[in-house]
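Throughout this chapter, every protein is written as a compact record of paired, labelled lines. The reader may check this reading against the record printed directly beneath this paragraph:
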Amino acid sequence: MSTFSGLNTALSGLNAARTGLNVVGQNLSNVNTAGYTRQRAELSAIGAPAGGSLFDVGAKPGQGVGVSGIARLGDGFLDARVRTAFSNAGYTNVRADALTDIESRMQEPGTDAVSGQLQGFWAAWQDVANHPGDAAQAAALLQRAAALAHTIASGYQGVADQWSHTRGDADSLAAEVNSTASQVAALNGQIRTASTSGHPGSELLDQRNTLTARLSQLVGGTVRDLPDGGNEILLGGNVLVSGSQVNTVAVAGPQSMSAGKAVQLEWERRPGTAVDLDGGRLAGTLSVLSPANAEKTGGVIAETAADYDGLAESLATQVNAVHAQGFTGKGDPGQPFFSIDAGKGAALGLHVAVSGAADLATSASATAGRDGSVADKISQIGTSQGSPDALWTQTVLATGIAVRTGLQQDVAAGTALANAVAVQQSNASVDIDEENVNLLAYQHAYQAAARVMTAIDESLDVLINQTGRVGR
């Protein structure tokens, strides 16, 4: 080995320590950067050179230290766990919000809610039964009936508006999916270029991880790494992102709930081909937009709207059936008390058909005069089996149970997400105390390497400048 090789050994120590200090500085600078994964300088010893001649004998030390790379201290398993947790939390959060919104619109129990209006309506019929022929009681009844019909229509319109708003959210989420997927594809290209040129690209990987986590929150999916440093994102086994390529998606289906058809996510290049989603906010949004069905397993919004229609139909059918058995004060047979406008649906089309007290059929016979027995029968409908009140009570109870279940699932998913993120961050986030220790270690290593270089320099000075001066 050359006499000067010790300088190179010391220089390698200086370079390694300086690289370590730079990495520590990068970590400390990004301690508050969201999504940043801490890095570490990977050092490896440089071995002794091979023998150069027959006279090159004896034990040889190594030639210093080299920086083999800068490692990104992330964990793929923990990253995948976080993505799964984001997917579940996104799905449950949308459904919990939709159910909570429905419950708040019902305002049950309360005097202004449907249940309170129904009770007031039956009470008004009882007042008419107690005072048959009284114009004031009849006017109060008609007012109560109109208010009840308005409350039912308003409840239906509220959930219809909620459906339309949610439908718009679905379009916005699909646009965000396409935008985020395009950013991931662009980063894949940059990471591949950096990898080819020998740069680690850790910061690019951090950005991509943040975006893939956001995609998981939106649409779930599976992330798979590629050999060239890029990745693939699969939805239901089909490629959303592969390297620098993106397959965009779009929401297809009706724009109004009244159409009664399904809304689904499709591939834009293959219209009519649905995208299979296993989680995420968009999957939750599409689930609450599903149309109602006979099994009552459709979307929560449309099923609630169907309950409003069912309530209006039951109310009109049962009241009209009893009212038709009576006679007005003039002896005319009773006509429908409620009617439903064709083409509007039961809830929106429900209105009071009678125009005044003279049209109320409260008597049991044409000659009974001021008999109120039919009005009394109508007032008892609310307490009968299968009454509109009973139907609405079932709706309110089912909604309450669904809301409680949805909130419990949302809380559980949120807790799982928080735990997954905490474990990921405990492994990948910057620990200031640890970095300060590393900072001191590299600082002392740098000083030690500098001291070695100084010692060798002094030795060489003696060898070069002082040799041969003995005895002069």
In short: The radius of gyration is 39 Å. Residues 5-73+430-465 form one domain.
